[in-house]
Amino acid sequence: MPALSEAVPLRGTAKSKGPLSLTPGQLGWFAFIGLCLLIGLVAAYQVLSRGLVVTNLSDGVPWGLWITIDLSAIALGAGAFTLSAVVYLFGLKAFQPIVRLAVYVGFIGYTTALLTLVMDIGRPDRFWHPWVYWNVHSVLWEITWCITIYLTILMIEFAPVLAELPLFARWPVLRRVAHGLHRAAPYLALVGLLISLLHQSSLGATYGVLRSRPIWFKPSMPIMFIVSAIAVGPALTMGAAIVIQWVTGRRAVPPELLRTIARFSGLGLLAYLYIKLWDLAAVSYYGRTPASDRALFVLNEQTPYGFGFWVGEILLGLVVPAFLFLSPRFRRQPLALFVGSALATAGIVIHRWNVTVSGLVVPQAYSPGSLISTTAQAYSPSLAEWGIALGVIGYALLMFTLGVRFLPLFDTKAAAKESG
Amino acid sequence: MSRKVRTRRRVKVELTRRDFLTMAGAAAGSVVASQALTTGPLSPFASLRQRQVEGDGDTAAPRGGPHWGMVINLDRCIGCEYCLRACTATNDVEAARPWNIVVRDETSAGRSFFFSRPCLHCQHAPCVEVCPVGATFVRGDGLVVMDYDRCIGCRYCEVACPYDVRKFNWEARHDENPYVPTWGTPEVARRPRGVVEKCTFCIHRIDAGLANGLTPGDDPEATPACVNVCPVAARVFGDLNDPDSKISQTIAANPTLRLREELGTEPSVYYIPPKEGL
Fold first, then answer.
1. pTM of the shown model
2. Given 2.30.42.10, 3.30.2350.10, 1.20.140.10, 3.30.70.20, which CATH number is that of B56-272?
């Protein structure tokens, strides 16, 4: 999440006496989160009382900022399934210290996406319809199911951590159940891996299957979505771990582990870069159609799409973080890893935004004549849309802060005892 | 120690055999289960497929019956927008965002013509494929219909439609319809906030007309409002499956095209291009 950098004022939590004594920095931080949530609530009231007319969305551009947040939050939660699979399926126990954090960040990402989604659909009261009324041909139906199942898996995976809270000490039954759940971790990791591979790529397919939109309609969409999620999800978890270490002053995750994740993520970013450039070549030369040519022309002439692609996605979102993650000199510096993580995260958000908006602002040509409209449609998010965005970011930051403060996210001793 | 290892190995072999049998059993079981679940009468998939093909209960005709379609003669259209107005009045559509659009276009030779577009009622409709709740589907008589009670307002169908046919209800409507009563009176209720709507081919007229023994396309009471009102008879409506219907004969006698045919959506609306070509 982009605003994680602002978690720095929390520095000194470890020195505070009790859970309720706050330093001025913490007070300011909570005030900031509270303000975000307040703005979000006001915006949510607007949306729910007046309808989606308060957005700048239209019949021409029906999806925008909120869909970008959904896609980004889910992609950034991919650290959970990647690192769980690494530990529980591939048996690389060295990654154990960071799994809980990864699962927690994943949980925050998925709930953030669901919150935004509920705002985005026209009938929030019918959010349950995909579970009852099935259209098995719909990518979106499959994604809804996968996200539901995966969120359940995340909660089961995280239940043992919650059960360790002193609050639950007086019910030993809970701890026994939680311990049993922990033993199911490999199976949960396996199902989580399958479900995640499915829906993370399906999010790309949401666009890729639409034959009506020439610049979306390509088989590389799902692959770019899944590869970018696998590359950046763990990087975000790593960045979060670094921030937590700065704030609490506690070395919970071994530095070598962070460097290993950085290397993994760096290689993932290179793979993503390779696919992206190859996709660009394919779209520009081998797979070009009159319609995709026209769409790209409109985008390059009338929108900052080219700048966003080359500078936002490729340079800042891919090349720089890959360099920071892979260069032995920078990899040793937590600051460099944090900057790389933040840039890669921003790169993901910019990519999801570019994909969503670029495909929609190009007008469709269906009239049989020669007067084809070549004016890109306008879309920039309204205040209410930004308000909801701030609100869900505030939610994510609040969950993260509370988790860092109250949850045993790094209790490696207990983890070692359970696995031993 | 070596003995211990051997025992363990033997145990392992036994386990593997049992595993193999278990796995074979599980595989056979899942094949049976998946068959039952996907094709059996108990399967939710089967009921879904049936509903998508045959339509919604008693109102729908089975496949093999009529297939309602429309011909729009671009050579005749004078761009008067009567179809737009009659449609907007009859279906009580928001005037600023009509279901049935009329725009000026040009042939490659530079001659003006007018292009109008209702919903094309595709037989392989992208909107139907993407709807996560099956709120829109192709009925047995070819109509692509909306279930406003099921729609969750995700607008994926709007994104998927190749012809910009679909409109979303961004707010609860309080607008006055400027075409009522001059161009007709509303025959259907306004759609609620938060659901997607689109041209229905005046489905309420077709269904009521058929129930009363009328023929859509011939009897005005059973024919879409835009077709009835057209002063130059640029629009023809009827059963594409009936070779003797007016629409089938019009298609047989004229060159026709369908919009973005390369997408394979199989629209039910055919266009007769201007005489000197496009």
1. 0.86
2. 3.30.70.20
